[in-house]
Amino acid sequence: MLEDNKRAIDKEKIKSSIRLWLPISITTYTLPHTMEMYMQDVLTTFLSECHHEHMSVYLSYCLSELVTNAKKANTKWIYFKEKGLDINNEEDYEKGMSSFKKDTLENIDYWLLTQKKEGLFVRLVLQEYKDKIKIEIHNNRELTLFEYKRIHDKLARAKKYRSVDEVYSKILDDSEGAGLGIVIIILMLEKIGLTEENYQVISENGETITRIILPVNKDTDAALKELSESFAESVDTIPVFEHKLQEINNLLNEPEISIPAISKKVSKDISLSLIALQYVNSVMRIPCTSLPKALEIIGMDTLRLLYSKKNQMLRYITTLDDEFNLWEHSSRIAFYSYNLARNLASEDSVVSEEIFVKGLLHDLGRVLFSTASTNQMEAVTSTLKDSNYPFTAINSLAAGINHGHMGYLIAKKWNLPEDLCGAILYHHDPLYAPRDISKSVAIIYIADMMSRYIEKTVDFYQIDKSILRQFNIITEEKFSKLANMAEEAFVKTLR
């Protein structure tokens, strides 16, 4: 990242990261003014997409204060090192701080360049995850014990003040320039309904992390849940492309056609697969996650009826999602998941045939909402009007927010097996998946991240490293190699 040029805001990437519960990270070594402004713009956009626009002014102040403090902490570490002073020794610390401000301001470019050479960074991390929103400032040096104590003394002192004017009227110890800022940060947080409990300072593993924790917008969260339930209840058809249905019908009418041949064709299309799985689990009430097994249970005669144009459960569609071909994405993740399971989890209780179906249906909520019928959308808008929720909630659903929960509700309605429902629900949240499906859900998560990595909509740093380590994927080089191998193999299946 060039630090002397202000970058354009990638709004779509911010939206995607929020939808996928992924972190957004910006790293700087010298914090030039253009970089600080870029961070402010990203924060404002992020808060807007999280429906917290009203917090932007207050949190922008907090961000400015915190990144400046983090940069100052890095400069301090370099200054003490060059002066031969032990920053962890209280006497040396007091001695160094008596001249730190004057000396560094007189030649600030030198000190910033030196800390950059030492690899000392300031990093902004933003993430919406489940019911929380995190704003974090990282810098890669730990606080000393007495620095840590000073900060918590300031936090305790902040409780005594009720306004910024009152703070400025008092004489505070500003030898480090941080005491006053921390008190004002707490007051800013109080203005948006937060307390000092929403402000955390952690120093460990060579880093100091200052974190502000926000709750998700309760109105929007409630709206998404209720609208998802309303949509799930309204789903009574399966969207299908007419030419795909015709292809499977032609195949079924061939003499001596076999179930494996039918399965090979059906498995390449989420709608055709869903027709069979829904019928076996919901109509026949036979639990089944395997597509070949489902087709075998149904039998040729019923399959010809099931895939005929007379089936009232089917609804023709003619267009795909403009942003992303969800049909191809579903097939890609099924293929990736199947092969990752065979190569990375062959000794575990992961059945590659079943994980194929879980990968195929992981985005069930997005697929069905993106092709919603007029009646289904009327059910959602009716709920929206009756509940008095903001209309923007529909835009959030269309963007894919809450799609895991929506897909889970539909899968439950159709009586799909619990492990399949769980895979749909947790595919962006594998660490919280029940133990019996955690391995397969982790594979689907990795497959999804690989696809998005290749599409350049997700960066490697955004992917949960604890999940990758489960499969001994430690470096980006290995991840990239596996992703490209999977993609090359998948492309061959399209020919």
Descriptive notes:
- The protein is of the alpha+beta class and 495 residues long.
- It contains 24 helices and 7 strands.
- The chain has helices at 11-19, 33-49, 56-83, 90-106, 108-117, 145-158, 164-168, 179-191, 218-234, 242-252, 259-266, 270-283, 291-298, 300-306, 326-344, 352-360, 364-370, 374-387, 392-398, 403-413, 418-426, 435-454, 465-469, 476-494, and strands at residues 24-28, 122-129, 132-139, 199-204, 207-215, 238-241, 314-317.
- The protein has a 5-stranded antiparallel beta sheet. Strands 6-7 form a two-stranded parallel ribbon.
- It is elongated and about 90 Å long.
- It starts with 10 loop residues before the first helix and ends with a helix.
- The model is unreliable at 171-178 (pLDDT under 50).
